[in-house]
Fold:
Amino acid sequence: MRKIAFVTGSRADYGIMRRYLALLNGDKDIDLKILVTGALLSDVYGHQVDLIYKDGFEVSAEIEVELDSSSNKTVLHTMAETMDKFGGYFDVNRFDLLIILGDRYEMLSIATAAAMHRIPILHIHGGEATYGNYDEFIRHAITKMSLYHFTATEEYRKRVIQLGESPDRVFYLGALGAENCLYIEQENVPKEIESIPKKEYFVILFHPETLTNVSTLDQINTLLHALQEFSDYYFVFLGTNADTNSNIIRKTVKDYVEKTDNTCYFENLHTDAYHYLVQNSICLIGNSSSGIIEAPSLGVYTVNIGDRQKGRVRGNSVIDAVCSIESIKNSINKVLKYYNSIKPINPYYKDNSAKLYYHTTKTLLERIEKDIEEPKIFYDLQ
Structure:
């Protein structure tokens, strides 16, 4: 039996992986361990580990770290603590394969700890570009510590190979989120979400930019001022992530919602509830990757603000806006004018991606002993 671990620190990471994890968990030849850390264990972010238990998974380890997103210095402290604790955990807990998704800063610490202990890593969502956020260099750094790679598009597969990874270890399998957002279990959607009139509201999900010199406070205030021009509609705000200065966004949004009638705020939602909310909205406004990867599959437009997602492949339903009141207003008006007239095309969607991930993982487990006999070499492009 092969012992596999998946490590997650955020609502988004886990939500993307649910259907793939269920397939691994149901395989009698695989012993799946789920390791939880970061924002999932924080009361500030809604103690979202409860979502994993609700889905019926067993959490093998809860590794708490101090979270403080007020500055890069405090984020670095979190990264150091994460590396130290996971270094100790991996010293006594060995795995045949560790699965890491994406580009969160805590994942860089975990990948480093695993690589130092010579635990093979399968990296998901490598090769992507997000020039406005430190996720950009974190993602590529994790790529270099990983043995195998599942990418969301063929363009990203080529970029991972360009980074020196052997082509026979890099697989274009589509984005899990682009498919699994279509499988919404209604029992996970709260009545208060269902009661919001369909197609009469916007969903707002906004995160900080961490590689640009823009002010986080200025950006969120600009967005809120732009939304005031659409007082005939309802606005559903969702909690931000744990990036540097996310505390500024959280406080500003909560203060705004408290004094504004046509708004509400949810810190913590089940993945199915989030997808239901987006699917029945007019559009998603903000700068989340889910607006680029998941919203098109749900048939919903996205107003993508600023440079956080700059560099990502995007479909025809993503409307890019600079972070100015006028640009945001114009983009929202485009959605209202063309809504339902253009069918979204999702470049991240691939049929049966969860099954592709599962079967490819099974194939890799059959060859992994041979692949780790010698240190990984840098693959040079001809």
User: Anything to note?
Assistant: Residues 161 and 167 are 6 Å apart (CA to CA). The chain has a mean pLDDT of 95.
